[in-house]
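Reviewer 2 asked us to include a model.

Predict the structure of this chain.
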Amino acid sequence: MAKQDDYVRYTVRLPRELYSMVEALANESSRSVNAEITELLEKALDRDFSSPVEIVRLKPLGININDAAAILGVSVETLNQFVQEKRISPPMKFGAEFVLPTKEVERLARSLFPE
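Predicted model (structure tokens):
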């Protein structure tokens, strides 16, 4: 187990929307927000950004609600119905648009289109 001396304490200010997205990911993976941020940073820093394949594999934390509806092959109204049924979390405002957590869109896609 790592000792306390192996860590650096550093305070980071995040936009509320970004924090909410990281918090949702942390809850989904049963980790603390700090552990989730550490995991995300480790994954991001492990990437070989000289490879186009690795760049394409990077996933955003959130997907625009219109794009999510298109990916799932449903209308935005149907997607909003899924939100009402609590099949997916409500969209979060991120900048000028509303986004859904990518992992939740993936989970909903798997439930709509089982392999």
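The longest strand covers residues 97-101. The longest helix spans residues 33-46. We have added this to the supplementary material.
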